[in-house]
Amino acid sequence: MAAATLPEICLVAGANRGIGLALVNALLEDDATKRVIATHRPDADLNGLNELSGHYSGKLDLQALDFETNDSLDTFSGYLARLEQPVDLAIHAAGILHEGNIEPEKSFVQCNTGNLRRMFEVNSIGPLMVAQALLMAQPRKHPFTFAALSAMVGSIGDNRLGGWYGYRASKSALNQFIKTLSIECRHRFPYASIVAIHPGTTDTELSRPFQRGVKPGKLYTPAQSAARILDVLSAVDPDQSGRFLNWDGRQIPW
To answer: 10 Å Cβ neighbour count for 203?
Structure first.
């Protein structure tokens, strides 16, 4: 693929680790990028972002954001509205597959109400609320892309193995949110591109306990995944809004 042409004002939500941190790094390294807004939970480990901030202090803006509270979302939206230039590219990279006592379910008997709710809070509702905060601040006719990292296992049409109830369903819900949002934005933000994207299996904390079955050559570094995501998103236009894309640009069935 050709090298991506990156926008000037970029936002990465869930930026303190994994693919999110790699996206921030890749954007900062590009001379075309003027500012990267990196959001993180208030209690997040910021070692990686702080290191980048030491190299790119005038280019990187760290913003605490708790998508589970309306006050935090309102504050963040107000911050975006006060920017001298609106956001050109926003990527929601936060998500969970396991957390505390939450693990992917092998059978329906392992499904737990609280765990399922948490999956939906982070993987589905979180990206939608971040998109809402962004859209409330965006000029109507400004061209921009909003992308949420989804997962191939969220495809209902591609589900052949079963299991992983909470993760699959929460990513399917995310895909539905993205599709629905894209339809509304055709009228409210006619130059917006709203997509879901599968990054491929990436060597991060999210996937590490489940990498044993990954085929050789199919496990990618965060830097590789970030570069491919940005490459695909650089070619997205409003005609492609509402699609579920693979890391290589192919469309994935819902």
So the answer is: 16
Type of residue numbered 210: F
23, 46 in Cβ contact below 8 A? no
State how far Cα 182 lies from the chain centre: 15
Structure token digits, residue 192: 């917006």
CA distance 97 to 47: 22
Question: Of 232, 239, 74, which Cα lies nearest the Cα of 150?
Answer: 232
| pLDDT tens profile 175-209 | 999 999 999 999 999 999 999 999 987 876 665 55
Burial class (CB in 10 A: 0-12, 13-18, 19+), 95: buried
Q: What's the pTM? A: 0.92
Other beta carbons within 10 Å of 99 = 12
In the chain, which residue ranges form alpha helices assigned H by DSSP? Answer: 18-29, 47-55, 70-81, 113-120, 126-135, 165-188, 222-234
Per-residue pLDDT tens over the stretch 50-80: 999 999 978 999 999 999 999 999 999 999 9
Is the CB of residue 97 less than 8 Å from the CB of residue 170?
no
Domains of the chain in sequence order: 9-245 (3.40.50.720)
Determine contact, residues 132/90, Cβ cutoff 8 Å: no
In angstroms, what CA-CA distances link 231 with 5, 86, 173, 193, 224? 8, 21, 25, 15, 11
Distance between CA atoms of residues 225 and 18, nearest Å: 10
DSSP summary character for residue 109: G
Phi first, then psi, for residue 100 (nearest 5°) are: 60, -120
Report helix, strand or coil for 105.
coil
